Amino acid sequence: MAIRNTSTPPAMAMYFQPAPPFCPYLLALMAPSPSVSRISSPLFYHPSTEVLLQFFKDKGGVLQHAAAAVAYVVDGNDMGANMTARHTVALLPEKPLTAKLFDTDSFQRLKQGYDVRINETERRLSAAEAVPLVRDAEAAITSWGAPKFDAELLEAAPRLKLLVHAAGTVKPFVSPELFARGVRVSSSASAIAEDVAVTALGYIICGLKNAFLLSNSLRGGGWRKPELAQPRDIFGKTIGVIGASRVGRALLKLLRPLPVTVLLSDPFVDAAAALALGAQICSLEELLSRSHVVTIHAPAIEPLRNMFNAEMLSLLRSDVLLVNTARGMLVNEAELVDFMRTRPNSCAILDVTDPEPPAEDSPLRRLPNVILTPHIAGSTESGLARIGRHVLHEIDAFFSTGQLKEEVTREMLERIA
């Protein structure tokens, strides 16, 4: 690459008065040599230089002008041919979902900063259909319904360095081969956590008020039927939070201002840490027996499958409100059905089931004291856009600093959702 033998343009030199610490370095690069008309400089071929210049451009102000000054002396006046070689990103979600994840600003930033291979279809891609998009990709963006990056798909993506999941759990989409290849993984679970926590709190308040069941009764021509549980408020109640996950912690934060007693059951949290979160640590059995409300935020891992079985359910109060916004596999649904049939004053609000959706003939669909929602706790308009911004931030950080805010390692898979 060649550098022109030219003086620094006055319009650009003015921006370096007074000059930040890096400017003498940049000015030295631009200084003309009286004896050399064209200088080949390998400096501009180094990837870190590209990152530095992009950083300057993104920061604006004098930093942006610094990048412009360097671009002025590089052949082509556009940061050079090599500088235009951008990182390739495969965007795998279907178009309707992409439109929800990335608002106009985020999508434009993504396309301007990277060579983006986009799923232009209206549907989820199979692994075979994803191959053309990931073939040259250094990063891949996945979301709900994306193909799993197993050995076969990885063979078609030899340059892949980063997988950013634009949703919560990454488990269905990663493989041992992915981590063995050294591909870094990031999740958007933290971007979803606040929405799920707010939904859980809303379910708790509405569930205690018996709003859902009273509404159904009203639709059927009733009014305040005496056989239905009377509305309650949240004040003075004991709320049992199972799992200090991202969602669990976000809910604990929401509960702090309220006059409630909060119990927490999590094997990885001690008494001091629980107190700092505004809760009392206790065993699962104690939590179940004491709580007016039990809300589940445990990870979906095999050792916890069906953890809420008949034995655990028998510990619950007869008028308990059970909320599950975590995963359906944590609850033995057949035994939950039996419990709910014999506890008419209890209520279960389930945003998740196993399987999803529940079978057409599932008793959960017909029990009057069971409320079902179709896994929507984290699916809000603003929440999805927040996921898109998080994904973009992770990709930018990875290619500029090598750091990830929400990295998921192979070791973490055993204990996270």
Give a structural overview:
This protein is 39% helix and 13% strand. The strands form three sheets. A seven-stranded parallel β-sheet has the order 10-9-8-11-12-13-14, with helices on both faces. It contains 18 helices and 14 strands. It is an alpha/beta fold and 417 residues long. It is elongated. It has three domains: 2-83, no CATH class; 88-187 and 386-414, Rossmann fold, CATH 3.40.50; 191-372, 3-Layer(aba) Sandwich (Rossmann fold). Mean pLDDT is 84; it is low at 1-50 and 67-84. Strand 12 (321-324), helix 17 and strand 13 (347-350) form a beta-alpha-beta unit.
- The CATH superfamily title of the largest domain: NAD(P)-binding Rossmann-like Domain
Low-confidence stretches: 1-50, 67-84
Helix content: 25-40%
Q: What is the average per-residue confidence, as pLDDT, rounded to a whole number?
A: 84
Number of strands: 14
Continuous helix count? 18
Domain count: the total is 3
**Secondary-structure arrangement, i.e. CATH architecture of the largest domain:** 3-Layer(aba) Sandwich
CATH hierarchy, class of the largest domain:
Alpha Beta
Using only C-alpha atoms, the radius of gyration works out to 28 Å
Oligomer: single chain
For the biggest β-sheet, the strand order reads 10-9-8-11-12-13-14
Largest sheet: 7 strands, parallel
Q: How much strand content do the residues show?
A: 5-15%
Q: Shape, please?
A: elongated
How far is the first residue's CA from the last residue's CA?
49 Å
Enter the CATH topology name of the largest domain.
Answer: Rossmann fold
Q: What class, by secondary structure content?
A: alpha/beta
